[in-house]
Amino acid sequence: MARYPGATAEDGRRLRRVIAEDQDWSLTLVPYLSKLCLQSIVRNFEEKPIFQDLCPSHKDFVQERLSTSLPLHKTANLISDGVYWKRCCEQRWDICDLSHYGHSWKQMFFERHMENIIELFIPDVTEPKTVLEMVPLCRNYVKKLNISQLLPPIKEPPKEEEEEEEYGSEFASDNEYSGPSMDHFDFNILLNKLTSLEELHLVYRVKQCGMNFEWKMFEMTDRDCESLAKALMSCKTLKLLKLHQSHIEDKKCRLLVKHLLDHPSLRELDFSHNLIGDKGARALGKLLTRSKLQTLNMCDNDIRGPGAKAIAHALSVNSTLLSLNLRLNWVRDEGGQAFGKALLKNNTLLHLHLGANQVTGPTAIALSKVLIQNNTLKSINLSCNNLGADGGKALGEAMSLNNSVTEFDIRLTEIDEQSASFIDQLVERNQSLEQKRQTGKSKTKFTPPTFL
């Protein structure tokens, strides 16, 4: 019936309303069923993970709400790269520069997670399964490892002299400590399993040793070297190896090189800031003849004339090396002149750094002959050497006939001001020519033939 005079039954039906017992209830607050289902998926993800069958918008909804503390074996191979891994990274680390990780949040998370595990690994204390359990979860995402420290075993406390005297030498020998099984993390258990690894940066050191400082905390031992060498040989995808500041001398260098000979993918090798001398340099020369290295960095070592000559001899027959850095060694004119002769035959090397090597005028004269004949070199660094006025004059005359060198560092070389200024002008000329060549290449476009 109508509720007021004159109203029809039809009007009454139109005016009907549902009066809720909850005064705050509103139709607009009722969530969609799909949203309720997604919330249920988020709450129960650990027990029943559902992700791949969702549409893209629903996947985004789940990634934005999943707990970042979920076990990795539930999420690693299920949750694709995106918001979830971004949240995981930003929660753990203050600085997250995505450009260093292929612009992938997932790659960043697993590379840094694996690095943390290795850097905190203590031989004979940390279980190897801690590392090995991660391999099936991260092998597809770890492309680079940057290990900034490697911890040694926990040092056993020395036995007191009084205790030894009390129990006698026989009893003490029965309890003699045999030593740790490894001196640092054993890479031989890991590298061959990381099937996407392309770069490995290593430093054998302890970052925060405090009052427990010992020199052996900052060096690779013989056992470490043997283990790493075998591991490198088994890692067929490795393109870059950087092993610096680890007190590597000739013996260790030769062992490492022995296992890197004929490596199928290695392109960059950095042994800078170590103790490698002539014997190690000779091994590196052999490596240049049996590898496809493009970059070799031996900065700040102990390579002298004979070692430099071995590398130069290899360079004369090498056709792959693009960059050679021997800064802060002791090659002197014996090695400098050898490089001059080698570069008369080499047409591949682009960058040569002989800064701070005690080379003098004879080396400058040898390299001036290279500048006249070689049109491949792009940059030469001879800074912090005593080239003298005659060396500067020879280099200036040669540069007037060269149009390929666009970087030439001759600071602190005792070259007279006039020669130095002349060389700088010629370098600027070559830079301008190179820019015009590059501009011409970019403007040159392929015009398809017109068919009538």
What would your notes on this structure say?
The chain has 452 residues and is of the alpha/beta class. It has 17 helices and nine strands. The protein has helices spanning 9-14, 33-43, 56-65, 72-75, 83-92, 105-119, 129-132, 135-138, 161-174, 222-234, 250-260, 278-289, 305-317, 332-343, 361-373, 388-399, 417-443; strands at residues 144-147, 199-202, 240-243, 268-270, 295-297, 323-325, 351-353, 379-381, 407-409. A nine-stranded parallel sheet has the order 1-2-3-4-5-6-7-8-9. Helix 9 links the parallel strand 1 and strand 2 (199-202). Helix 12 runs parallel beside helix 13 (305-317) and helix 13 packs parallel to helix 14 (332-343). The longest helix has 27 residues, at 417-443.
Question: What would you say about this model in short?
Answer:
The protein is built from 17 helices and nine strands.
Largest sheet: 9 strands, parallel
Question: What value does the Rg take, in angstroms?
Answer: 33 Å
Label the overall shape.
Answer: globular
SS elements, strand count:
9
Order of helices and strands: HHHHHHHHEHEHEHEHEHEHEHEHEH
* Structural class computed from helices and strand pairing: alpha/beta
Annotation field: number of helices: 17
pLDDT < 50 stretches? 165-177, 444-452
End-to-end C-alpha gap: 87 Å
Give the secondary structure arrangement, pairings included.
Layout: H1 9-14, H2 33-43, H3 56-65, H4 72-75, H5 83-92, H6 105-119, H7 129-132, H8 135-138, E1 144-147, H9 161-174, E2 199-202, H10 222-234, E3 240-243, H11 250-260, E4 268-270, H12 278-289, E5 295-297, H13 305-317, E6 323-325, H14 332-343, E7 351-353, H15 361-373, E8 379-381, H16 388-399, E9 407-409, H17 417-443
Parallel strand pairs: 1-2, 2-3, 3-4, 4-5, 5-6, 6-7, 7-8, 8-9
Helix pairs in contact: 2-3, 3-5, 5-6, 10-11, 11-12, 12-13, 13-14, 14-15, 15-16, 16-17
